[in-house]
Amino acid sequence: MTKQPLAPGRVLIIGSGIGGLAAGIILSKLHCRVTVVEKNPLPGGLMRGYERSGIECPTGVHYMGALDEGQPLRRLWDYLGVTPLIPLERMGMEGIIDRYVFDDFVFDLPSGMDAFEASLRRSFPEEQVQIKSIMADLRDIARTLSSLDMVLSPTTTALSYVNFESMGQRLLRIGCSQKLCTVLAVPATLIGAPLQECPAFYYYMTLASYLMSSWRLAGSSARMAEAFLSRFKSLDGDVITGDGVESIRVESGQVQGVVLKSGRILEASTLIAAIHPKMAAAMLPAGAIRPSYAQRVAQIVNTKGLFGVHVAVNADTHPALPYNIYRLYPEADGSLPRGVFHQLRPSGQTGVNLLSLITTSGVEEWRPWAGTRSGRRGGDYGAAKEKKARHVISEASRIFGPLTDGKILDSYTPLTIRDWVASPDGSPYGILRSAGQLMQAASLNRTSIKGLYLAGQNRLCPGIMGTILGSFQAVMQIIGHEQFARGVAGEFL
What we know:
Layout: E1 11-14, H1 18-29, E2 34-38, E3 50-52, E4 55-57, E5 64-65, H2 72-80, E6 88-91, E7 96-101, E8 106-110, H3 113-123, H4 128-147, H5 149-152, H6 167-173, H7 178-189, H8 200-212, E9 214-217, H9 221-234, E10 238-241, E11 245-251, E12 254-260, E13 265-267, E14 270-273, H10 277-282, H11 291-299, E15 306-314, E16 324-329, E17 338-346, E18 352-360, H12 379-400, E19 407-412, H13 414-421, H14 438-443, E20 452-454, H15 463-479, H16 481-487
Parallel strand pairs: 1-2, 1-14, 2-10, 7-16, 14-20
Antiparallel strand pairs: 3-4, 5-9, 6-9, 7-8, 11-12, 12-13, 15-18, 15-19, 16-17, 17-18
Helix pairs in contact: 1-9, 1-15, 3-4, 4-8, 15-16
């Protein structure tokens, strides 16, 4: 079948993460001619893990929500055609999704709205009024998320100004205790936003998706990356790997294409940058964007980076867990500046399980090596990583018992993420979606350059759900609301 592009000429997409590939699939389904350009040898971005000692170490995908039949992310995946290609296992069917471990108490996060409410009421018997208010708001946003109306109508009631008040301020306003605030702060960490800054709408959207249903990948994370990639290619999409974009060509305010690192020129009148806006802006010719836009990009605040370590442990002494564990260290105001995420899963090797540990780590912690590249940072960097990894493992031993026989497979820092997926400050969550800079971040989606659009997690919201929703919104911006409603949204709304 001959393709009849809805967008003028070829569509180029910079970045092959889930946002770029999702946008590519949607446009290819609409018979556009799409090429995705990826600087790394393998496409997939943070969907794709890596191997150490024959064990796959995951990076960006640890668990996901709302993938049961009829739920919002499942409907979007069904439209994209990737659902049958990604093996999943459901969490919380006979227990919990997450365990929150504090110094003086433990809170278990169950699956389902009603179970969550019951757990809150049991744990905080003196805060029934506050919990009633929280659950009413949560259920309201869950209904909005389930309808997916926000894809077509971002001005829907749920997106009103009141829902972009910070969740921390909202909990303070209704009189929640420090202890309840601490428990409720954890879901905000899944999008890299402190509770005191996280907009209530994004908070409730994140929590609701996991309460609807939570899932882990049943096999290698490469399966997820390959699912999106193979689906895109099956629609005649093209992928260029190992040759990143050097610059974006613009003439008279209109995108003309890109120049790759190799010097190769690709012509296109429509370009989607599924990368951080700061990186996209750096690829533009001087003066191509308005000074006000350049200033907004320069001033944007990103989410904090992460430090991760993967440890091979004895499966007999450390059996796999069907839930995640968060070890949390709250401040007096209920904030969570420090915590560690733990996931203990089968490694694929007999007698060995994989313990993955992740904690926050700002890029400033690794400032001495800021000017270096992956694989060339020197022995001091390796020693600093090992020291931090040993400290995190030592803390984990208080939960899992002695881990002295564990083998460190690998660790990574914000600099690793920075170099791998070109994220300034090494943040896997990108732009901070805070109540204070929400409008500034949203304004970046209109670049003033004809034919240039943004996708990926920096367009709407971090996380798999937010990133894919952002890809759909980018396509709607390209082809127009009417065409999108008729040719795209009608298949999943």
